[in-house]
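Researcher: We're teaching a course module on how sequence relates to structure. For the next exercise, students receive a sequence and then see the predicted structure as tokens, so they can try to spot secondary structure elements on their own. Here is the exercise chain.
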Amino acid sequence: MIGISGSNYGYTNTYATASRPVVNPGESTKVSPGRKSSPAECETCKNRKYQDGSDEMVSFKSASHISPQASASRVRAHEQEHVSNAYKEAASKNGKVIAANVSLKTEVCPECGRSFVAGGTTSTKISYSDESNPYQQNKKSADAAAFIGQNFDIAV
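Model: And here is the predicted structure for the students to work with:
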């Protein structure tokens, strides 16, 4: 799971207006109606940091900046690390991944109005077979009895 640390949002541009300096080179200097600044001048986007809150060994354990343009791909890649870890854990403990779902959260910067991916969550379900459970052993033998002789080749 990755999310934004702090409360700053924003983007910047390479052009400056007379009142504010450019803090995000390459971004538009146009100020949208109802917004405080343009993407080029947005301090919030410049200072936005992402940090992972899980106990897994994945990227973003310490807060790091991601540009708004790259936020979707970087957060998606980070959440894929969690999915990969679930498959590794299942394989190492004789389990099977039943489901792995990733959801990304988008937000709009309150200062400049640009949309960005604010974070993501990954949920996985892993099924582990318990061979020591007598009910599980009984179920396996009942299944085996039901399937014996169902498939055979007549061509001799």
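Model: If you want an answer key for the exercise: Confidence is low (pLDDT under 50) at residues 5-18. Strands lie at 2-5, 49-52, 64-65, 95-108, 115-128.
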